[in-house]
Amino acid sequence: MGLYSAYKQGLMGTWYWYVRKLNAAFPYKTVDGKKFAVFPGVYKPLENEHACADYCREGESVLDLGCGCGVGAIFCAEKAQSVVASDISAAAVKNTQANCETHGIDNVTVFESDMFEKVEGKFDLIVANPPYIAADFASDEQQFATSVRYLPLLFAGVHDHIQDHGRLLVQYPAWFKGSLVKLAKSHGMVLKETKRMPMKSVGLALLSLAYLQVGFRSTFFLFEPEQPRQQADAKTNVSQDRLAA
Ligand SMILES: C[S@@+](CC[C@H](N)C(=O)[O-])C[C@H]1O[C@@H](n2cnc3c(N)ncnc32)[C@H](O)[C@@H]1O
Q1: What pTM does this model have?
Q2: Domains (range + CATH), the chain
Q3: What are 117-128's pLDDT values in tens digits?
């Protein structure tokens, strides 16, 4: 392991320990008037994540990939016909289930899955708030801020789970736009809209500071398939037929 990787491991390992203690001491977070329980090993929403629901249309099917405490799933569930909420972390799955119960939400199906592994079907909207830091931790409860797998697996699998005219909403820091768009494009997804997340209130900004979650500009990136899958496959087949002729 290089010096920089060792430094990142040490720093983020300490941060995970610190967040666990803070979450245990302050186990709730009110988001846009709704009170959410946030379990110790689960990401606390501090970036106005609930605003992902602005992209959800009435009656849609939604996938929240990496649901954490369930904030995105629960806000989308108010408009969506059905929501699938999955996470690699068993604690996050239990946390989302608990918050669905508290808020009387019954159109959200929650289960453990490593990215798309156990996800079936195609969705109108996929919401993804990936870990922002590229570092490799083994524990399932240490995947909410660090991962080297989330984004590559997201784009590698998205075509199998998005409707032809569906949308993928990714929340990520603004200054990674270039690499995000490049990765998306290499998997046939195009950027349709970029929007900064809503301004934080003073209270939320102070809480973010306490969690040492500062210094980046969270942004919504909305992607769509470049062309529907069947058309893309048909085009490839025609080219192959031409080559064979
Ligand atoms: C930044 S948190 C976002 C949580 C929630 N969506 C929110 O906005 O509050 C990232 C989430 O992705 C989950 N995650 C990370 N790697 C994953 C993987 N390989 N498969 C599924 N979920 C993963 C984490 O456990 C964590 O709950």
Answers
A1: 0.93
A2: 3-244 (3.40.50.150)
A3: 999 999 999 999
